[in-house]
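Hey, quick one: can you model this chain's 3D structure?
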Amino acid sequence: MKMKVQLLNLVLSVLLLVGGSAYAQQSDLRAGLFAQADEAMQVAQEAQADVLAPVSYDDAMDLYRRAEQNLTRNRSLQDIRRDLAESVTLFQRAVERSGVARVSLNEAVQARRRAGLGSS
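Sure thing. Here's the predicted structure for all 120 residues.
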């Protein structure tokens, strides 16, 4: 009986070790694959692209999430890289459009103030 418990403990330990190693590898893979997309998303969030350029931002997020799901499901790295590259392009487009929207909104606010319509 004591031998069975020891054997069971050994098997469980090996399984935990193998599982933990696989998780670490998956985590390292994700960090490498998603680094550029994570950075582009951060820049877009700081530019308030989700509010000022929601279509481009949402399209970028859809591709980013699809890449995450494909990684979790162990799908093709080529497909994941393609989705991430396209999401980076769309995040960058969202940042550009956010700048344009910010200028346009600022001009509209200034025009309102000059017209005496917006004092707050």
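One thing worth noting: The longest helix spans residues 2-46.
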